[in-house]
Amino acid sequence: MTVSEIARVQAYLRTLLGSTRIRVIKPARAGLSVEIAADEEVIGTLHRDEEEGEVSYSVHITILEEDLPKVAPVAGRR
Fold this sequence. Notes:
This protein is an alpha+beta fold. It contains one helix and four strands; from the N terminus they run αββββ. It has a four-stranded antiparallel β-sheet. A hairpin with a 2-residue loop joins strand 2 (34-38) and strand 3 (41-51). The model has no long low-confidence stretch (mean pLDDT 93).
């Protein structure tokens, strides 16, 4: 992925999510994944796909169960 593509995707995600805390990080060397971070915490990866001349980007966000907050059960739901 080019530096320009990374910058454009970062700008889009910041606008979409309403946060300048989002950063798209170019990998240190070829072959590694482009990472997405919120401040300094890596929250996922970004992938580029090109099919029949059309380019798309997909975001994979990983959430560890141990990072989830405790919440009160919602009445009527399991």
